[in-house]
C-alpha cells in the first residue's frame, strides 16, 4: 500500500475541508452506511472546480483526512490513482447541480431495501417530511456506476431533488453543504427504516399532512437546525473515536490561544 499523500503543503481551506469530510465519513459509519469500503462522501473545494472524495480502498469507518483524494468536476480530467470507481457519479451530479456542494452515495441497508420496493416515501416521521414527494427512484440499472452516460442518467433522474434511490444498489444524497448532505443521508436512512417498519403493522398507518410537512421542512430542516444536527454528529464521532480530536483544522492550530 503506497503511503498517503502528504497534507503539509495543502491550503488551510483544503485541510479544514479534509477534516470535515473525514468526520462526515465516520458519522455515516455510525449511521449504518458502511458496506465494506464501498460508498463515498465528497465535497467541493470552495472557489474551484475540484472536490475531495473518499479514496477507493477506504471505508467510512476508517476514513481519516489523509484518506481523501482530489478530483476534478470535469470527467475528462485524468483521475487520481486512488479515486473510487464511482467517481463519475459525483462528477455528473456536480456538473448538473451547481447548487450542490456535497454528495453522499452509500449502500445503507434500509435505503437500499426501500429502493427495491415500489413504495412512495411518506412522512411517517420528521425525517420522511424531508423527502416526501421528492425522492425519485433510478431504475435503468442496478449496477455500480462506472461510466459517464450512466452517471449522467442518474443525475438526470435526481433532477432538483435532495436525494434519489438507486434500485437494488443504494442511495444518492446531495446538499448545499457537507453538513446538509451528511445530515440528509442520516435522515433518509431513518425515514426508510421507519416506513418499512410501519408497513409491517396490520391496519396501515398515518403520515403527516401536507401542512405539517411544510412546517417541518421550514423548522426541522432549516439551516440552523441542520447545523445543530451536524454538531451532534461531529460530537458523536469525537466520543466514538477520541483520536479524531487530533484532526485539528489548520486554522485552529495557527491561532494563538
Ligand atoms: Zn455504489
UniProtKB/TrEMBL annotation:
Protein name per UniProt: L-fuculose-phosphate aldolase
Keywords: Lyase
Domain of life (superkingdom): Bacteria
Pfam families: Aldolase_II
Gene Ontology molecular function: L-fuculose-phosphate aldolase activity
SMART domains xrefs: Aldolase_II
EC id: 4.1.2.17
Taxonomic lineage: Bacteria, Bacillati, Actinomycetota, Actinomycetes, Micromonosporales
Residue ranges occupied by any Class II aldolase/adducin N-terminal domain in the UniProt entry: 19-196
Zinc is among the record's keywords: no
UniProt organism field: Micromonospora luteifusca
Similarity comment text for this entry: Belongs to the aldolase class II family.
Enzyme class, first EC level, given as a word: lyase
Keyword Cytoplasm listed: no
Amino acid at each position: 500500500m503506497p503511503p498517503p499523500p502528504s497534507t503539509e503543503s495543502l491550503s488551510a481551506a483544503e485541510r479544514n475541508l479534509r477534516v470535515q469530510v473525514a468526520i462526515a465519513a465516520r458519522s455515516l459509519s455510525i449511521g449504518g452506511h458502511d458496506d465494506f469500503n464501498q460508498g463515498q462522501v465528497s465535497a467541493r473545494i470552495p472557489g474551484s472546480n475540484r472536490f475531495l472524495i473518499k479514496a477507493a480502498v477506504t471505508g467510512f469507518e476508517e476514513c481519516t483526512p489523509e484518506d481523501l483524494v482530489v478530483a476534478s468536476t470535469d470527467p475528462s480530467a485524468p483521475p487520481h490513482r486512488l479515486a473510487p470507481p464511482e467517481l463519475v457519479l459525483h462528477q455528473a451530479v456536480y456538473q448538473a447541480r451547481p447548487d450542490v456542494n456535497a454528495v453522499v452515495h452509500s449502500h445503507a441497508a434500509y435505503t437500499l431495501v426501500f429502493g427495491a420496493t415500489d413504495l412512495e416515501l411518506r412522512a411517517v416521521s420528521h425525517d420522511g417530511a424531508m423527502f416526501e414527494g421528492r425522492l425519485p427512484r433510478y431504475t435503468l440499472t442496478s449496477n455500480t456506476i462506472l461510466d459517464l452516460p450512466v452517471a449522467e442518467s442518474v443525475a438526470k433522474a435526481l433532477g432538483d431533488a435532495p436525494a434519489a434511490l438507486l434500485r437494488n444498489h443504494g442511495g444518492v444524497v446531495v446538499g448545499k453543504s457537507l453538513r446538509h448532505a451528511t445530515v440528509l443521508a442520516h435522515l433518509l436512512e431513518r425515514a426508510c427504516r421507519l416506513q418499512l417498519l410501519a408497513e409491517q403493522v396490520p391496519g396501515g398507518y398515518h403520515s403527516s399532512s401536507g401542512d405539517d410537512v411544510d412546517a417541518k421542512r421550514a423548522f426541522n430542516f432549516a439551516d440552523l437546525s441542520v447545523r445543530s444536527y451536524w454538531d451532534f454528529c461531529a460530537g458523536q464521532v469525537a466520543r466514538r473515536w477520541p483520536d479524531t480530536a487530533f484532526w485539528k483544522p489548520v486554522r485552529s492550530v495557527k491561532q494563538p490561544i
